[in-house]
Amino acid sequence: MSLYGQARSKSAKKEASTSTSTSTSTLAFSTHLASLIAGSRDSEGTSTSSSNAASRGRTRPSRTSKPSDLFARPNRGAQKRAAADEAGDDAHHVRQVHQSSAEIGTIDAATFHRSKRRMEEKARLYEDLKSGLYLAESSDEEPDTRDKEDYLARLRRKEREGLVDFDKKWQDKAQDDENEEGEEEDDDNASIVSYEDELGRTRRGTRAEAAQARALQNANNRDTTQRWKPVQPENLIYGATVQSEAFAPSSAMTHLASRRDRSPTPETEMQMHYDAEAEARARGTGFYAFSRDAATRDKEMAELMQAREETQREREARIARRAERLAVREQRRVKVDELRAKRRADVFLAGL
């Protein structure tokens, strides 16, 4: 029941129970946290007072038993997973265990050298079988032919009795090398890159084409550098030198004689100082080609001046007529405005 005698609703009861459980859990957490803080302080006090423990005597046991630490307990299955990680993920995993010579024992020097010699002999046999030495034919000219034939016979026997087919192995290796070279060439040709050709244009092509264009460009640059390299002049003068051949009188006299022996300029050419047709110029719309004769040219210029004066007179007359028309138009506009004002005044007076 509530304070005023009314029954509480289910939602209110649910909210009250929820708030009660929340406050209870909060109180339990606060109590546990306070006990942890008190325990840490007790441990610090114990470490600081360890020197005075004998003088004070036996410590009094705590009345309340120390609660168990929730954070000290490991998660469920953590130890089992750690052991499985240490043992190895693979079921067939074999752990390498190193042993000392005291545990496995030692061998004498003779046995060690004999084993070493046999291993070296096996390695040499394997290399000879791998290189195909058992296929070689004997020659009578070579020394120690009998020992070599015995060794070759031994190699052939080993090749027949062995489990490794060296012929097929050599063939597979050669084929793999060819495939790798072909793949490298295909990769070089398949990848598209951008490069600049010898003319400075940006192209797109394979790596091989780019390398070829780069080599060609380097060769052209080298040739250009050699071609444009300045040549050292041969007639340089070093040090204090008297230049006796600085003035060549023979060449100067030849030039003076050529100017002296030149024919005089004709009088017609001297008098003619204007030629409109001979000028190298762009002739536009207003171009006027005067005559070469001086009298005719003066007459043409006078006619041109007269035409210019007539044009100016016509232009001034046209401007005057236009100004007169504008003045008449302005007078008419003023008169029309006066008539309109008078009419509006009459209409206004008639309306009164």
From TrEMBL:
Keywords: Coiled coil
Sequence ranges of Acidic residues compositional bias: 177-189
GO annotations of cellular component type: nucleus
Superkingdom as given in the UniProt entry: Eukaryota
Cross-referenced InterPro entries: CCDC174-like (IPR025066)
Biased composition (Low complexity): 17-26, 38-56, 208-222
Region (Disordered): 1-26, 38-108, 168-224
One protein family per Pfam: DUF4078
Protein name per Swiss-Prot or TrEMBL: Uncharacterized protein
Organism the protein comes from: Penicilliopsis zonata CBS 506.65
